């Protein structure tokens, strides 16, 4: 069986075709390499911003997939011991932490941070949507890093805690919102997306008041996607990673995701066999290489606001209303469980796990809410092993990836 890992690589200022923000005119048709000595932040800004954005898209897909293994949104059908250890939360320095998490996230952060530092010098920086895009993608890259890594570094600097990474994300999102707002109606998509990201960062920080207030600014019907590509020359980098790995028989729907909820479609007929004496059931949410993956939405903002209110003031009204609305969307009866804060929070995260299956959010949910029982949010108990459990050993309890030796061995700060 082939390896689960995909070497996802992109370099800044290389060809980026038809990759942009959904519902936002951020595409470039015929990109080319920019001579650094002749770079003009006004005329070349779009190519720079979109190249850095592509690095973020690649990092997002890698982290969403492999973080999904850690949070048990997906099980692994791979035969590799390294992947099995990852899925069992047994992190070994010789495994794929660098390729799966740290390297793509570091590239996304560095390229977008560098784009911001260059574009901010442009004559029209205060309203430059390319600058706003790079700042927004920097914020999302930092947010994902803080939710996934136990700690991290930025461009070879000192070790940073998740709180420090999130504080930096808040700064980046705030910059994006300021610039995109000043740009007028054309910046609305960036403003809304950045408000989702900003609210998400505040939530992870435990800043409940700012999380709720920021989330309330996002229109309920807003959606922004990570754009994927079915272009045969980029399938290994920009093709939908969940579809790719399902075809290879390497990601499998866990048992608690096989419950008939239309938000979590599965396929138990392909290829119609068993692996390791267990039924082979794969996801059917993404059915082509070009299927986009939701990055942020008004729905996520509603979840953020409801959770922040639960944590901040023990107010359950918005959470209970959202729970009933989403249970109806999943063909479930109205909620009849406990109305204490922990019970409502557990059910809210259960619905959130269903709505955002394979969208790179559950790992942060688990780390943010250690008091919520894992089985309450669609995480199979330890006794229900991840698909090819024989090679991974016992389950570990650490829901974050450590900085890999590739960084610690080369970074003089360690």
What does the model show?
The chain has 414 residues and is mainly alpha-helical. The chain has a domain at 41-233 and 290-376: Serine Threonine Protein Phosphatase 5, Tetratricopeptide repeat (Alpha Horseshoe). The protein contains 14 helices and 8 strands. The chain has helices at residues 45-71, 81-87, 97-119, 129-148, 162-182, 188-205, 208-215, 235-238, 241-247, 298-313, 317-329, 341-355, 362-368, 405-408; strands at 75-76, 223-226, 251-252, 266-267, 274-275, 278-279, 282-283, 293-297. The strands form 4 sheets. A two-stranded antiparallel sheet has the order 1-3. It has a two-stranded antiparallel sheet with strand order 2-8. A hairpin with a 2-residue loop joins strand 5 (274-275) and strand 6. Helix 1 packs antiparallel against helix 3 (97-119), helix 7 runs antiparallel to helix 10 (298-313) and helix 10 (298-313) packs antiparallel against helix 12. The two termini are 37 Å apart. The model is unreliable at 1-31 (pLDDT under 50).
Which range best describes the helical content: under 10%, 10-25%, 25-40%, 40-55%, 55-70% or over 70%? 40-55%
> Structural class, please?
mainly alpha
Low-confidence stretches: 1-31
The first-to-last residue Cα distance is 37 Å
Average pLDDT, rounded to a whole number, is 88
Output the strand order for the largest sheet: 1-3
Over the alpha carbons, how many angstroms does the gyration radius reach?
Answer: 21 Å
Major sheet details: 2 strands, antiparallel
Can you count the helices?
14
CATH topology of the domain at 41-233 and 290-376: Serine Threonine Protein Phosphatase 5, Tetratricopeptide repeat
Order of helices and strands: HEHHHHHHEHHEEEEEEHHHHH
The tally of strands reads 8
**Quick one: CATH class of the domain at 41-233 and 290-376?**
Mainly Alpha
Which CATH-level-2 architecture of the domain at 41-233 and 290-376?
A: Alpha Horseshoe
Give the CA-based shape: globular
Proportion of residues in β-strands = 5-15%
